[in-house]
Model the fold of this input.
Amino acid sequence: MMNLALEPECSEDVYKLLRTEKRPYSIMVDESNDIMCEKECAILVRYYSETQDKVTVGFVDMPVCNDAKAENIFNCIESSMQDKGLEWSDCVGFSSDNCNVMIGKNNSVLSRVKAQAPHIYSVGCPSHLVNICAKTAAKELSMSPEELLIDIYYYFEKSSKRREELKQFQDFCNIAQQRVQKHCPTRWLSLGKGLDHLLNQWPAFSSYFESHSDNQKSKDTQKRLADPTMKLYACFLHNVTQCFDKFNLIFQNKTPVLYKLNDSVEELLHDIASRFVVPRILRENTLQELDASNPEIHCADEDLFVGFLTRRHVQSEETLSPNKTKQFFKDARAFYVKSFQKIQEKFPMRDQVLTNLSVVSPENQDDVAPQQIMALAERFPNVMKADARERLHLEVLDYVSTNLEAMVPNYRNLPVDEFWGKLSKVRSVSSGQFKFVELCKLMKLLLVLPNSNCDVERAFSMDPLFEENISLSRLKHNYKKLVDVHAVK
Done:
């Protein structure tokens, strides 16, 4: 039933739009990790569904690609696209993680994709980029609460006896019994939750390892838990991760939010800079031009924002020596400087598409300039044809001078993709023709540009192959059925 009925029907709805109706789409690609017998390459498409008035994601294929070279990955993608009848000429966006094999300038998957689709757009995955910035900045810290968090998890992971013993210490310390949180080093979003758990459970962990220092690993863990400086760094890192989590959660969204990227990066830069830069400097300078490494613009240690719990720990912990406290503030400052610099470096805030992409939101109607729209149309000549530019310009003039509430009631409360779906159905009173054909066509194209690579990573979370402790017999699955299950989902 799965092979013969459900999968072809679900897939055909996607392919009809993309193949027959020549709708613009983006392609999203990600590889599975190295722990499986077979490495798989998940391929998804992001397109605008006219029937649902929203951007949606469709599953294309998950071929095996054990040799993860750029040429092999690209061949897998191209073969899957040919099987589905998808044309490169309709592909407007590409998303993957940010490794060189995928998006490097030369000899990468993206360079091969651009050879087939010269006008394709790829900004990189914002979630991966901000993760790189945060992890690079964390290397400036003299102590690593992240490593402590990981070591504690793996100490308890395989031993039910240890976990049961830990419950006794949680009860003794009057702390809620909770499972030890796992932190994945490649997922910065999990660090904040893991540190929150670590700080809440600190007395129970400390008490447990004081009583169970029976090997070198547990002795090392006990020593770190007993060090007040380690807790100081954990408090600081727990506080600062909130800046990055706030940004990251925006681009985990399934709805179109790429038009918010520049403003979100500006806000993240301001959140970080306000913690260590003199306020007057921030008022007088643009964030993109700010030299964060200049010590003359930094706050003094007593004015450096490190979080309430961190500051309280500094003031109340008598065993912290002045030298360790001084080193901590030096490290905290270095973390802020490095994270600020990496964000400036990694995010292409002057990119023409990102600079003009705010026009997608109807909230910015008053600020829309025809030049912005025309520049975006010229960026995608494979979809926005030159002979339609004059009509597009006239539609923009009509749009910016129109009462949107009269045409799309309650539009402020609609998702942005639903708004453009409804506006595309508005007709001229005199001619009966659709009023905003070219403008809505362009906006729907921009909306299918991926927010991040999170959609394709979710494909693996649906895959039973990627459960922990899976048996070898389950690894020898029917590959075709797995692809069918993803297509139906």
